[in-house]
Amino acid sequence: MTNGAAWGVLVLRIVLGVILVMHGSMVFTTYTPRGMASLVTRIGYPPWSSLILAWYLILVHVAGGVLIVIGLWTRLAAVLNLPIMLSAVLMLHLSQGFFMRGVVADGRTSAVGYEFSLLVLACTIAIALIGAGPFSIDGRRPARRR
User: What is the model's pTM?
Assistant: First the structure.
């Protein structure tokens, strides 16, 4: 990997990880797990799975985001985030149109439109395929242990 590519992966990894951590934290503190479970049901998942999936989003975004930032088990963390991001694009935002805009409902501002979710999905796929790069814990481990 060239030096420029290594720095590029580092920037991509850190920004993606921070976005995931912040989003998971926001869901936990602002929307709450029960509020997210309600949204999960509204977008089409079975009611019995909604609280499980809400907690999956929170835990995988926060823990996975931290792992992506530090570059440990990076591909696994990215792959575990893929179902969340695919659901966000295909089941939540796709019908809202491409461009992201803010909509106020119930005193909260929500983002609608799939442009940002699609970008996060693409970055997650890229990290899952590329890996953490040399400036990471994964990059420092011997190849046979990765």
Answer: 0.91
